[in-house]
Design goal:
398 residues; alpha+beta; 8-stranded antiparallel β-barrel; 4-stranded mixed beta sheet; 6 helices; 25% helix; 38% strand
């Protein structure tokens, strides 16, 4: 029996491993290649990747004396109900109820035997049983071949622990309860996105006293084989691989920072240069306007077509005004001229008069000269000098 089960397990594994291979198009090489997807995977939400399952089949109790019965007489009905969750594509957990009936034979009468002993002294044994256990599931197909949500066949070994209770078929008050360990193989065959076919072989181990008879065995066991359906709950889509985040491209920002730093450096250089120029200007002596003085007369020259007195000549007028005020009884003639080569006769007469008035007003209004000391007159255009600029003048003289 053990050799048969081992041979079946190897065959199942071989078929499962073959089914793990699938191919996809590689854009880099332009060929179809084998795709193997392994972790890491994103951890799902609490309600993701749950499943419930129901199954039915047969079991066979194994204890001292049971081999006395023929194979068919030892088989009893079994049912399973499971609730579980896949934590990762390879690791899961489930809580399972299993039970119904157990059959066998006992050398002595026990609370679970019925009738009289047969010719060899064996009593028929039967009992109701129920087991609750938690199992650790390992999806070997995903662990070795990589996760594939649409794989047809998943090969899932498991181990678990719980308790098992047996009751007399006719009197529930007669019972036995023991700790139990489970191990087995779950085959999950995909039928669709929501529903799977399950084929499970499980071996439960418990103390020999569980069936109220202690023979030569220290540990009794129960082999169960069931087939059923499993329903996938929660959002569809299975497990998601993390999306690789492309490294941030800081080159444009670094270039912009470098450009701004260069602009700042140039601005600082310009500020330094302007500061040096300002310091140099401040270090120069302030130019003083040339003061032309004459004890008895002075000349004020004008630009062409203008009657405005420049700052330099205003300073000269200030000095000459002091001379006039120092001689209050002296009369001074303020005579204006234009160059005859520029403008009409009439215009020159007006402009020469305006120039003379501008000088007289500056002496009176700006520097306090008595108006009565001044005679103002415009001579119009003249050609007294070879240089016309010398004819654009106002002469103040005694």
């Amino acid at each position: 029996m053990k050799k048969l089960l081992f041979t079946i397990a190897l065959a199942v594994f071989a078929v499962t491993a073959f089914s793990q291979e699938y191919y996809g198009y590689n854009e880099n090489t332009g060929t179809y290649e084998r795709i193997t997807e392994r972790g890491p995977y994103l951890t799902g939400k609490f309600f993701d990747n749950w499943f419930i399952g129901v199954a039915g089949g047969v079991n066979m109790y194994m204890s001292t004396g049971d081999v006395h019965k023929d194979f068919g007489s030892r088989l009893a009905p079994a049912i399973d109900a499971s609730l579980g969750k896949w934590i990762t594509p390879s690791v899961g957990m489930r809580l399972q109820y299993s039970g119904l009936r157990g059959k066998g034979a006992s050398k002595t009468a026990t609370p679970f035997t019925y009738g009289s002993a047969d010719g060899e002294g064996y009593y028929d044994k039967k009992f109701k049983y129920v087991s609750f256990h938690g199992d650790f599931l390992w999806n070997l197909s995903n662990a070795i071949g990589g996760y594939k949500e649409t794989r047809t066949w998943d090969f899932v070994p498991f181990v678990g622990f719980g308790f098992v209770q047996a009751n007399n078929v006719y009197n529930n008050d007669i019972r036995s309860r023991e700790f139990a360990a489970n191990m087995g193989l779950l085959n999950v065959i995909r039928l669709g996105e929501v529903i799977d076919l399950t084929l499970e072989a499980r071996y439960m181990m418990t103390k020999a006293r569980f069936d109220k008879y202690v023979g030569s065995r220290a540990i009794d066991g129960m082999l169960s084989v069931t087939a059923g359906l499993s329903f996938n709950l929660g959002p569809r889509g299975g497990f998601k691989r993390p999306v690789a985040v492309a490294p941030a491209n800081y080159t444009p920002y670094q270039q912009r920072i470098s450009a701004l730093e260069n602009d700042l450096s140039n601005a600082n250089d310009r500020i330094s240069r302007l500061q040096r120029e300002l310091d140099a200007c401040n270090a120069r002596p302030t130019p003083q306007p040339e003061v032309v003085t004459a004890p008895h007369s002075m000349s004020v020259f004008f630009t062409i077509g203008s009657a405005r007195i420049t700052d330099t000549y205003m300073k000269n007028l200030e000095s000459f005004a002091n001379t006039i005020k120092a001689h209050p009884n002296q009369k001074y003639n303020v005579t204006g001229y234009c160059d005859a080569g520029t403008g009409s006769v009439r215009r020159n007469e007006e402009l020469s008069r305006q120039r003379a008035e501008a000088v007289a007003n500056a002496l009176v209004n700006n520097y306090g000269v008595n108006r009565s000391q001044l005679n103002v007159e415009g001579k119009g255009g003249v050609t007294n000098h070879s240089n016309p600029a010398l004819d654009r003048v106002v002469i103040v003289a005694q």
